[in-house]
Design a protein that fits this description.
The protein is mainly alpha-helical. It comes from Methylomonas rosea.
Amino acid sequence: MISNVLNSATTLISNAQQKASTAAQTIANLPVQAQEVGGSKDVGSADLFKPVLSLKEAELETSAGAKMIKVHEKTVGSLLDVIA
């Protein structure tokens, strides 16, 4: 059970990293706005909404995974204190 917590946490963090990478790539590939140098068309806020939301989700998921690991370490430490 203890290893399941670590596996879940690392999987959550890994998936969040992939989500953040995909969102960042989407944002980077958006065209430059027309009023900027080399721009060809306007980028609407709708184009940015989903990838920015994905970045925030990835941040929260990473934070949750880190908290899971921290609680796991604290629990294992408590168990070792009880055994010793």
